[in-house]
Amino acid sequence: MAIVVVTGTGTEVGKTVATAAVAAASLAQGLSVAVLKPAQTGVAEDEPGDAAEVARLAGAVTAVELARYPEPLAPATAAARAGLPPIGPTDIAEAAAKLSAVHDVVLVEGAGGLLVRYDQEGSTLADAAALMHAGVLLVAPAGLGTLNATALTAEALRARKLPCLGLIIGSWPAEPDLAERCNIADLPVAASAPLLGALPEKAGTREPEAFRTSAPDWLAPQLGGLWDAEAFSRVYAPTPRAS
To answer: Which of 67, 92, 115, 143 might form a disulfide with 128, Cβ 3.0–4.6 angstroms?
Structure first.
């Protein structure tokens, strides 16, 4: 992993906590890590943003935010309403390249989903990923409705010839229902990519030291962790319905 884009099937699916978990696992391997948040929306000037939250949870990462807009809207809309310049794909790619020159891993956390607009030309995180030649990690929720959003995002990635490195479940409940348990098998099919982790619900509320210690247990070896998708499935996958 050099530059990795972390995107989601939508908002509030666990991208920031997933980014922090990948960062923590990478740090545990002795790698240097930078986290780039191109556009932070919905946060006041004196409040910590997503990049700062990743640093709080994961530890000694270089946290960089390129632009901040006060209203919780898509970056292009938030920039226009604030009368501030937008952040485009070239800005993101250049910042990531500079960080990649001095870090082993650069994690670029998007806003919302893959095709959220960043500027008035309609540029998206996908355009930035193409310029960076980056792989994409997709974060998705566990429950009912996730398969369609996951399949649509995966289709958009394929259309743009962007590699999907894998899928992370952003919040796995303590007591999963039938849809969530079935989705262990169905999500990788929808994404056409391997399931590379499942973060326990409220993982982001743990104390930083506990978060850092546990993060490798939530992620597959491809992301520097110890998590086993087959073992996870054996525990949670539902038994077939009797005919």
So the answer is: 92
H/E stretch holding 37 reads: strand 33-41
- The amino acid at residue 189 is V
- Residue recorded with tokens 């556009």: 39
* CA separation for the pair 200, 61 (Å, rounded): 22
Closest to 13 in 3D by CA, of 151, 153, 197, 140: 140
> Which among 15, 37, 98, 161 is annotated as catalytic?
37
What's this model's pTM, rounded to 2 decimal places?
A: 0.94
| Nearest partner of 43 among 68, 20, 65, judged by Cα | 68
**CA 129, CA 136: separation in Å to the nearest integer?**
8
Residue 37 annotated as catalytic: yes
What are 100-137's pLDDT values in tens digits?
999 999 999 999 899 999 999 999 999 999 999 999 99
Residue where the block lists tokens 């007591």: 175
